[in-house]
């Protein structure tokens, strides 16, 4: 019993020693504090109302003292007298209102001082003067109203200063003159109304300056930031700035980020951004800008991110972004834009994000070039998220410009005078621009059969860059030369080309009295009188393309499918008198099915064609083909896609006509031969090893070469080996009888002591 009790006591003592070894307890640690880390006293969130005290001998070793989250109200002159080696002092989230001027007098080694989130309203001059090694000073979220140069006296080592969320209204002259090594300065969320022109004159090493959420009204003094030659980031958002003057940032050669968001800027002088040659990010969103003139953004040679959203911009010059070669992100959303020039983004080759949402776009002929540009970049797999949603005219409201036909971009209202030649040279379809010139050329040649071949526009990734640009360049339309076979006559397809490249002929229901309409064959303009008759033109039927698609196109099918071609066939009802007097053509739409990004292509044929061969298809791809009508030069705006057919192209055959099965058989035979060779080599080696092992079983003794092959004397029962042969090959197996070597008897028994008994030789061995 006594032994068991003593054993338990030993176990308890050992456990206590182990616990104390892993959890050292400092005898001089203040009450409610944690001193587990060497040279650290952590008293955060312990409900303290005063700075805890420790003996002088233990306080001198403390490097970190954490007192955040307590209820300390005042800091006296004796609170930190014993902490001579303190390097970090955290007093945040207390209720400190006043700090004695000599409170930090003994903290010569202090490098970090955190006074944020207290109730400090003033800092008496000389309070921070002993802190010569201080590098980080936090005074944020207090009630400081005034700063003087004496507040930061002798703080030349400070690198980061936070004074945000205070009540500072003025920055005096040379207020930061002692902070010559300052790199980060936070002054946001104050009440700054005025900044003296030399307030930042000594901050030549400053790289980050935040003046956001203050009450500045203008930026016109060119000397305000003139000495900040190392500045990289300048934040001025959330003020009340209305005017940005010339040369305001001209000395900020290293500035890469400038924020002017959420102000009231309505005027930016032409030279306001001069000197910002290295600026990469400019945010001037949520202001009152009304236009972007040419030349304003030209100094921003390296700009990559430009945010102009949430303004009142109604006009952007066509050359506004012409010099921004490195522009990657551009935001123009939520403005008052109605049109944009087609060449406005021609120079921005690396643009990958463009936001044009939230504008009241007018989709008329002036937007044709922008539509062509969008088509071209989409075909290259770029800017796939760019969409322009039409607001005007009412017929196109809510539709996306990317899916509107050029025939629908009609001149409207007072804008008809601006369309002119630009509208005459627009391509026939939004995604089939490369077909128009081919179709016009093919109309000059007589057709010999039913089939009509057309070269289609292939995917952008299948063409090199040069061919891609040529494929999507706007084609030039040329009328075919007149000859004896074509004098006085034009084909329906050429009529459509002529009609669509001048002005699209609307139906009578779409035109009012006194409006102009175009003849589909002659291109001459007639005029609708009040009586309903049209000069130089017959009264047309009410049938439109939508009705023709629904009631007359039948039996759409696809045959002759190979790895690169497919033939689309269709038929129409025999009675086509409904379209008499109006030009009838067909459009074949086809696209790869099931792809996340739509990229339809179109082929136009005349009204007599019933089959089209699609070429340059991608092997092993699923396609869908739809046939639509073009009646009088007008397409169905909302095609139900009832007349469609799907098909899958085949994989191309191997070179030389060799079938895949033959290649597989040859490969299998080669593998079998290789396996046989490997097996034969392995079997040969195995047999050779066995033969060698058998030979080694009949091992011939070394002394066989000296054997005389004499008959073995049976009387020799034993032998006495002389000293010269003693131990010879003792480890090898005994030789056979036929392999024994006979030596002369006298020599053999010369050195041995033997005894003959009845002719039997008996060797005698000595000890």
From TrEMBL:
SMART domains noted in UniProt: LRR_SD22, LRR_TYP, LRRCT
Record region (Disordered): 459-492, 506-534
Gene transcribed to yield this protein: TRIL
Composition-biased stretches (Basic residues): 466-477
Keyword NADP in record: no
Family matches, as SUPFAM superfamilies: Fibronectin type III (SSF49265), L domain-like (SSF52058)
Record-given protein name: Fibronectin type-III domain-containing protein
Keywords from the UniProt entry: Disulfide bond, Glycoprotein, Leucine-rich repeat, Membrane, Repeat, Signal, Transmembrane, Transmembrane helix
Keyword Glycosyltransferase: no
Signal peptide: 1-27
GO cellular component assignments: extracellular space
Organism domain of life: Eukaryota
Bilayer-spanning residue ranges: 663-684
Domain Fibronectin type-III intervals: 552-653
Gene3D superfamilies given in the database record: Ribonuclease Inhibitor
Compositionally biased region (Polar residues): 481-490
């Amino acid at each position: 019993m006594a032994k068991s009790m003593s054993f338990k006591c030993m176990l308890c003592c050992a456990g206590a020693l182990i616990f104390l070894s892993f959890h050292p307890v400092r005898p001089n640690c203040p009450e409610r504090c944690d001193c587990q880390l060497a040279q650290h006293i952590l008293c955060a969130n312990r409900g303290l109302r005063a700075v805890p005290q420790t003996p002088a001998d233990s306080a001198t070793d403390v490097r970190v003292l954490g007192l955040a989250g307590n209820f300390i109200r005042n800091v006296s002159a004796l609170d930190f007298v014993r902490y001579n080696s303190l390097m970090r002092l955290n007093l945040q989230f207390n209720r400190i209102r006043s700090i004695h001027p000599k409170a930090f007098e003994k903290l010569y080694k202090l490098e970090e001082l955190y006074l944020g989130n207290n109730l400090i309203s003033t800092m008496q001059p000389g309070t921070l003067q002993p802190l010569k090694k201080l590098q980080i000073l936090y005074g944020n979220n207090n009630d400081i109203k005034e700063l003087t140069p004496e507040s930061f006296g002798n703080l030349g080592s400070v690198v980061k200063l936070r004074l945000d969320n205070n009540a500072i209204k003025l920055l005096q002259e040379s207020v930061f003159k002692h902070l010559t090594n300052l790199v980060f300065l936070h002054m946001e969320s104050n009440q700054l109304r005025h900044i003296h022109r030399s307030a930042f004159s000594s901050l030549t090493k400053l790289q980050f300056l935040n003046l956001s959420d203050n009450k500045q009204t203008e930026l016109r003094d060119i000397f305000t930031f003139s000495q900040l030659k190392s500045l990289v980031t300048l934040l001025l958002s959330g003020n009340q700035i209305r005017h940005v003057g010339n040369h305001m940032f001209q000395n900020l050669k290293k500035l890469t980020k400038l924020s002017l968001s959420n102000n009231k800027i309505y005027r930016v002088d032409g030279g306001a951004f001069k000197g910002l040659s290295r600026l990469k990010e400019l945010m001037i969103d949520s202001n009152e800008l009304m236009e972007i003139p040419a030349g304003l953004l030209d100094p921003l040679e390296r700009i990559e991110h430009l945010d102009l959203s949430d303004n009142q911009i109604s006009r952007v010059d066509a050359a506004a972004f012409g010099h921004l070669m490195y522009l990657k992100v551009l935001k123009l959303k939520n403005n008052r834009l109605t049109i944009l020039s087609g060449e406005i983004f021609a120079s921005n080759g690396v643009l990958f994000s463009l936001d044009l949402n939230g504008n009241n776009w007018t989709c008329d002929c002036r937007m044709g070039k922008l539509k062509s540009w969008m088509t071209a970049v989409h075909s290259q797999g770029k800017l796939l998220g760019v969409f322009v949603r039409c607001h005007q005219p009412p017929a196109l409201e809510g539709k996306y410009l990317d899916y509107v036909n050029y025939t629908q971009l009609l001149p409207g209202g007072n804008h008809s005078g601006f369309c002119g030649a630009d509208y005459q040279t627009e391509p026939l379809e939004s995604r089939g621009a490369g077909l128009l010139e081919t179709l016009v050329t093919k109309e000059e040649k007589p057709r010999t059969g039913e089939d009509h071949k057309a070269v289609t526009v292939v995917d952008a990734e299948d063409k090199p860059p040069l061919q891609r640009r040529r494929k999507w360049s706007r084609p030039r339309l040329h009328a075919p030369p007149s000859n004896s076979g074509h004098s006085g006559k034009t084909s329906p397809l050429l009529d459509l080309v002529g009609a669509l490249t001048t002005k699209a002929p609307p139906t009578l229901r779409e035109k009012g009295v006194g409006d102009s309409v175009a003849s589909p064959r002659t291109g001459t303009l007639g005029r609708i009188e009040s009586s309903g008759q049209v000069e130089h033109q017959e009264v047309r039927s009410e049938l439109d393309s939508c009705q023709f698609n629904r009631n007359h196109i039948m039996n759409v099918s696809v045959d002759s499918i190979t790895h690169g071609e497919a033939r689309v066939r269709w038929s129409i009802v025999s009675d086509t008198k409904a379209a008499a007097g109006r030009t009838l053509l067909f459009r074949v739409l086809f696209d790869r099915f099931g792809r996340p990004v739509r990229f339809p292509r179109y082929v136009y044929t005349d009204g007599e064609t019933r089959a089209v061969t699609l070429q340059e298809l991608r092997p092993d791809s699923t396609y869908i083909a739809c046939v639509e009508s073009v009646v009088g030069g007008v397409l169905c705006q909302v095609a139900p896609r009832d007349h469609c057919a799907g098909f899958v192209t085949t994989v191309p055959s191997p070179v030389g006509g060799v079938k895949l099965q033959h290649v597989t058989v040859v490969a299998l035979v080669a593998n079998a031969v290789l396996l046989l060779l490997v097996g034969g080599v392995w079997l040969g080696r195995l047999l050779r090893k066995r033969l060698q092992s058998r030979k080694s079983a009949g091992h011939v003794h070394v002394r066989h070469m000296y054997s005389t092959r004499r008959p073995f004397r049976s009387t020799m029962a034993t032998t006495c080996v002389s000293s010269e042969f003693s131990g010879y090959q003792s480890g090898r197996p005994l030789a056979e009888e036929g392999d024994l070597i006979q030596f002369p008897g006298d020599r053999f028994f010369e050195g041995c002591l033997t005894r003959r008994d009845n002719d039997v030789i008996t060797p005698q061995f000595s000890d």
